[in-house]
Amino acid sequence: MTNRAAIQIEAARLRAAFEAQGAVVVEPPVLQSAETLLDLYGEDIRARAYVTSDALRGEQMLRPDFTVPVVEMHMAHGAEPARYTYAGEVFRRQEDDANRDNEYTQVGYEIFERTAPDASDAEVFALFYDTLKPLGLRAATGDIGILTAAVEGLNTTERRKHALMRHIWRPARFRALIDRFSARADVPSSRVALLQNPDPMANAVPVIGLRGPDEILGRINALREDHAADPISAREVELIDAILAVRGTCAEALPQLSEIATQMQAISPAVDRLAQRLAAIEARGIDPGALEFEATYGRTQMEYYDGFVFGFYAADRPELPAIASGGRYDALTRRLGQGREIPAVGGVIRPGLVLELGGLS
Amino acid sequence: MSVKLGVPSKGRLMEKTFEWFGARGIQLGRAGSEREYAGFVDGIENVELVLLSAGEIPRELAAGRIHLGVTGTDLIREKLALWNTSVTQLAELGFGHADLILAVPQAWVDVCTLDDLDAASAAFRTHHGFRLRVATKYHRLVRDFLRDNGVADYQLVDSQGATEGTVKNETAEAIADITSTGDTLRANHLKLLDDGLILRSQATLFRSQTAGLTDAERGTMNRLISKLELS
Predict the structure, then answer these.
(1) How many domains does chain B have?
(2) Which residues are bridge partners to B174 per DSSP?
(3) Which of B137, B179, B169 is nearest to B156 (CA)?
(4) Are residues B54 and B65 in the same domain?
(5) What is the C-alpha separation between B135 and A239, in angstroms, rounded?
(6) Which of A40, A41, A43 is the best substitution to test chain B (most B C-beta atoms within 10 A)?
(7) pLDDT per position as a tens digit, A225-269
(8) Which residues on chain A are in Cβ contact (under 8 Å) with B147?
(9) pTM to 2 decimals?
């Protein structure tokens, strides 16, 4: 365990370096509205964040990350464009692995900028890449935007697309939905019985609770419509699977995705963005051909990222979590912006892990 | 010093536990009056009976304050993270059967599986502006189960008793609770989801992995375990 004072000194040094890049220092509060986080992440956040409460303000959470408070702060009174940096502790409940820290320091850099998103992606990535260079880390990248573009472009009902988008970050559920919508999975017998029943609500069971007969009937009608709709074609499922299987260096991944885009026009803009991003990264003196790319990277843990995602790992210390990670979170600004939105990208470094690996000097 | 055995302090669980040990030649009982929480152990030397609430036994085992304890699997899993690193299961005792299940109103003819519940939750949130409420006291078990099964847009609301009544009272839309027969569910117009079995539980004898033993206590523990025919 690295000395906490040393971690604070390293954090201050990193934050000063980010400030020198033009970022404004911000100090979000430790206690966050539990309601905001629960609305964003759902009940699962309770397994990952510490909840506390008082009789006046109700439930509060110890900040599990800085992104949400920084976005809230920017949306409330930030000037545009903006670059922010911060350093401080985050708190993560650990229930499955006693070796994972439940409290650790993060230093972050976030960009809110409407123009040239590729340049902003490259700016954050290159800043982290250059900062961490002495550690010789492995850089992993991905782009959730390609998968979401593929889902948006499917030749199927809006309702199915919406269901798939809702579960983009839950791979098992996403797969189950794809199987169901493409008629590859068996329909449960209870569903068959429901669809065959001309008047399923004719029984004498009392309706109790807030979910009323109109809602039940509404869903039955939705299920009937879904049943009548054509399944997602085997061809489209193959293309989704092909996207999910893309992995390799960026130099290998880009032509693979371009090839898929010739058969699935909907992802072309997202693939073009990837190409532009790689060019912007190259313009900053980093060989993108050597970076790893995985289309599914960041799909299980980073649920607010909806575009470019990245992480830096110590190749010889596989037990360590990412030393740094980040990505683009345009949709989060929309969720927290109360009608407003702004493209945003950023990331965090963990100075404690940096020191554990020997430090940057 | 003695080997400490934690047993639920009242009701059927206590009586059945006494019977189970009695059938194996070890008589357990409460000393003195009905109101006094002191116990006696006959049939083996140096074993001390500690009468506790079944809900506190997991914590006492994990802390190493008792060496052995009888409680439900449900309580061990709910209260102890990484339960199998702090306690070892020695024997299922064959009583106290209870299943932790997820139930919704019978009137929800469109909801029979977790897949349906997830879709209904999404629609409910859009319609009502808040996440569908599941009443339970087993927060961790239910949350892990729903996460593993990809159910989103729900919230857990705490219910420490009369959980089956929460739907009718409109403080929850669904429940997750222990049921032994299902009669209470039916009486409250609720139904079990087809894939809504979260955990099968029964009274179980656990051994603490953290409670230290002196040489003498180790001897007692070995005699006890062989007498109970667990080794």
Answers:
(1) 2
(2) B134
(3) B137
(4) yes
(5) 41
(6) A43
(7) 999 999 999 999 999 999 999 999 999 999 999 999 999 999 999
(8) 44, 47
(9) 0.87
